[in-house]
Amino acid sequence: MSGTAVAEAVAEERGATRRFGSWLANPWAKARFLWVIAIAYVLWTLMPVVIAVLFSFNAGKAQTAWQGFSPTRWYLRDVNSVWRDETLRRALMQSLKLSTLTVVIAVPLGVAFALALDRWRGRGAGTSNFVMLFSFITPEIAIGVALFLFFTELVTVVGLGFKAQVFGLSMYEMAYPVIVVRARLLSIGKEYEEAAMDLGASPTQSLRRVLLPLLAPAIFASIAIVFASAIDNFVISQRLSIDASTQTIPILIYASARRAPLPSLNALASITLLTSTLLIALAFVLYRRSTRHERRRLSVAESVPVGI
């Protein structure tokens, strides 16, 4: 082997060693393994959900042994199906009513609270921000116990039951629209409202005709988040429940877990999952459509040379 070939081989070996050392020094410089970790995490998270949904179509009563495929037995046909079992049907309707009323109360109050916090610059603004984040930093079981004592010892007129569940969940879920709407307000800025008022609009008109349409994507997202969170809530709903008439789907599933549950419970959970997924997908589509013209306007503005 000639001296040139030897030198090239040595240089190539040194280059490989240098590249390997650089990779060891910063293995995350490129997405070498991050996509593997991401896919593994998604699979690990979704695997139990997929199995639960799959066994809602099991032809037999077993929860651990596959006995054939039946698309409607535990949804419609069987005497213990979601459609024909009064307990399951009542829990489904209770969850839908509770989550819908929570959205109706929590989202408008959250939007108003976000607007107030965005414009509040005086004393007490920091305390109000802390109160808004209170439900995130406090364990849910502590909030559930506090609400239980509140409705049984102080506000005995309401007491436990459906009204207490609605009020308690609305208070707890109100932080989500506040966070989402405030983030949208920061991205919008105050230029649109100021321009509307410069053109003669009153503050109320600029809020109603300019700001609220711009906040529509955040409001859609808040509705989806609050609904999905409320329909799956267990701790607060369980602490404020009074009897079987106020049982929601999570409470019923938890109560049936110690017995031999039927695949109809999987079907009930699958209906909840489908409802939440469809609502979130609808909110995402509306968000993309609402912000499409805004992205186009920004791209056009960036392409125009300065001074024109």
Structure description:
With 308 residues, this protein is an all-alpha fold. It has a domain at 86-291: MetI-like fold, CATH 1.10.3720. 74% of the residues lie in helices and 0% in strands. Helix 4 (86-119) packs parallel to helix 8 and helix 11 (203-231) runs antiparallel to helix 14. The longest helix is centred in the C-terminal third of the chain and has 41 residues, at 263-303. The relative contact order is 0.11. The mean pLDDT is 80.
What is the gist of this entry?
By secondary structure, this protein is mainly α. Helix content is 74%, strand content 0%. The longest helix has 41 residues, at 263-303.
Please, how many helices?
Answer: 14
E-strand count: 0
Q: Could you name the ranges where pLDDT drops below 50 across 5 or more consecutive residues?
A: none
| Helix-strand topology string | HHHHHHHHHHHHHH
**What level of helicity do the residues show?**
over 70%
Q: Regarding CATH, which class of the domain at 86-291? A: Mainly Alpha
Mean pLDDT: 80
Shape, please?
globular
End-to-end distance, in Å?
67 Å
CATH architecture of the domain at 86-291: Orthogonal Bundle
Rg estimate, integer Å: 27 Å
- The CATH homologous superfamily of the domain at 86-291 is called MetI-like
Q: Strand-residue fraction?
A: under 5%
Main sheet overview: none
Structure classification:
mainly alpha
Write the layout of secondary structure elements.
Blueprint: H1 3-25, H2 34-55, H3 73-77, H4 86-119, H5 125-132, H6 134-137, H7 140-154, H8 162-173, H9 175-188, H10 191-198, H11 203-231, H12 235-239, H13 249-256, H14 263-303
Helix pairs in contact: 2-14, 4-8, 4-9, 4-11, 9-11, 10-11, 11-14
